[in-house]
Amino acid sequence: MQHLAEQWDQILARQPEDWSSMNIELELLDANQSEESALVLSPLNPWHERDWRSGIFRFRAAHTFGYGTAAPLCRKRLATLDSVGVKGTLRLLSRVADVRPVATQGTTG
C-alpha cells in the first residue's frame, strides 16, 4: 500500500495550477488506529459523518483562497501518520479552482 504522503503528492499533481481548496477523505486500513490518527490530524480540523472511530476522516486543504489547512501542513501531518505505521487511502471528494475574490466589503468610492 502506498504511503499517505505519496498519495497526497499524487492528488496535488493532478490539480490545476489555480486550485483554491479541496475536500479530502482519509479512510484508514485499520479503524483501531482512529484515536492516534485523530490526534495527529487535529491541526487539519478533521471531521467525520459517523462515529469518529470509524476510521474515516475528512478535512479541507487550501492553496490560494478558500477555507482549509495549508497544503504543506496537510502533507506534513500525513507523513507523520506514515512514520507511525498508519495505512489508508486518500480520496479527493471535491475541489474549487479558478477563484477570484471580489471586493464587496466597505466603501467603493
Provide an overview of this structure.
- The chain is globular.
- It has 109 residues and is of the alpha+beta class.
- It has helices spanning 4-13, 34-41, 71-83, and strands at 19-28, 56-62, 69-70, 88-97.
- The mean pLDDT is 89.
- It has a 4-stranded mixed sheet with strand order 3-2-1-4.
- The longest helix is centred in the C-terminal third of the chain and has 13 residues, at 71-83.
- The protein has one domain (4-96): Alpha-Beta Plaits (2-Layer Sandwich).
- 28% of the residues lie in helices and 27% in strands.
Major sheet characteristics: 4 strands, mixed
**Which percent range fits the helix content?**
25-40%
Provide the residue-averaged pLDDT. Answer: 89
Provide a count of the helices: 3
What is the oligomer described by this structure?
A: single chain
What is the radius of gyration computed over CA atoms, rounded to a whole number of angstroms? Answer: 15 Å
Structural class: alpha+beta
- Approximate shape: globular
Q: Please give the domain count.
A: 1
CATH class: Alpha Beta
CATH topology: Alpha-Beta Plaits
- The total count of strands amounts to 4
Helices, strands, pairings?
Blueprint: H1 4-13, E1 19-28, H2 34-41, E2 56-62, E3 69-70, H3 71-83, E4 88-97
Helix pairs in contact: 1-3
